[in-house]
Design goal:
This is Lysozyme. Belongs to the glycosyl hydrolase 25 family. It catalyses: Hydrolysis of (1->4)-beta-linkages between N-acetylmuramic acid and N-acetyl-D-glucosamine residues in a peptidoglycan and between N-acetyl-D-glucosamine residues in chitodextrins. The chain is α/β, with parallel strands linked by helices and 285 residues long. Helices cover 24% and strands 17% of the residues. It has an 8-stranded mixed beta barrel with strand order 1-2-4-5-6-7-8-9, surrounded by 4 helices. The longest helix has 19 residues, at 180-198.
Length: 285
């Protein structure tokens, strides 16, 4: 997260971790301005969140667990997501603070690589923080396949080493002038290419508002991509997009504090215990 990019008006291995809620019909909403309002290189997880929330009608469904437990009692793992906006990070301190996982910005479009990615990715690994790379999507600039190839070749790869999560596709900040059908095709193109390059299904980061408007609450990715939902709230569980029955990761604030990181940092949760997180990393679920 950045402190804080001002964009348009102010401003996600499927893991069956509990019964979901049925998908409903997505509410209609006005389209957002294009994500081109965010300059190339300035994208990060949450860059378009507030603009999306103001310009869209949110799906207010919340995840519900069965008798085994509630969202507030189910085991979760603490995480963060970072980019060059966090500067130099002391990953040993991050690990000591109880952070189990992190997503680290790698790329945008087919030309930009985050200048701190290599150091963050290496040092998180050395500190035994389970980490993954993410790509800030630019659907208006090039094909999904082209961006997936660039991502996979510039930090978004995967290995079964107990410490590497599958790559993540960050979708937010407007529909890039694409129709619902064109956006679905772009996402599927990225996903198919990424899997061909790495052997893993990409994680999808998005908010309910963006997904419901730009894809029409599409359920076409729920059987292949874990959902990393953006919903900044103090509630015990997040709202989730149409088309996804449950969340795997949840970004619940953009203003967290963690030892080893200067200033505010996005805070995240994984919906499962440490064994499930390791299984997701190693593709053994």
């Amino acid at each position: 997260m950045r402190r804080k990019l001002m964009v348009a008006g102010a401003f996600s291995l499927v893991t069956a971790l509990g019964p979901g809620v049925p998908s409903g019909t997505a509410a209609a909403a006005a389209p957002l301005p294009s994500s081109s309002a965010i300059p190339l290189g300035d994208g990060y997880m949450g860059a378009g969140y507030l603009a999306d929330a103001e310009s869209f009608t949110a799906d207010t469904r919340q995840i519900e667990f069965g008798a085994e437990g509630s969202a507030s009692t189910q085991a979760t793992q603490a995480g963060i997501d970072v980019s060059h906006y966090q500067g130099t990070i002391n990953w040993s301190s991050v690990k000591s603070a109880g952070i189990a996982f992190a997503y680290i910005k790698a790329t945008e479009s087919t030309t930009y690589k985050d200048p701190t990615f290599s150091a963050n990715y290496l040092h998180a690994h050395q500190a035994k923080v389970i980490r993954g790379a993410y790509h800030f999507a630019r659907p208006g600039l090039s094909s999904g396949a082209a961006q997936a190839k660039y991502f996979a070749g510039n930090g978004g790869g995967w290995s079964r080493d107990n410490l590497t999560l599958p790559g993540m596709l960050d979708l937010e900040g407007g529909c890039s002038g694409k129709s619902v059908s064109a956006m679905r095709s772009w996402i599927l193109d990225f996903s198919t290419t990424y899997r061909a390059k790495t052997g893993r299904d990409v994680v999808i980061y998005t908010g309910p508002s963006w997904w419901n408007t730009c894809t029409g609450g599409w359920g076409g990715m729920s059987a292949r991509s874990p959902l990393f939902v953006a919903h900044w709230t103090g509630a015990s569980s997040p709202s989730i997009p149409g088309g996804f029955p449950y969340w795997t990761f949840w970004q619940y604030t953009d203003s967290g504090s963690v030892s080893g990181v200067s200033g505010a940092v996005d805070r995240d949760r994984f919906s499962g215990d440490s064994g499930r997180l390791l299984a997701l990393a190693n593709n053994t679920l």
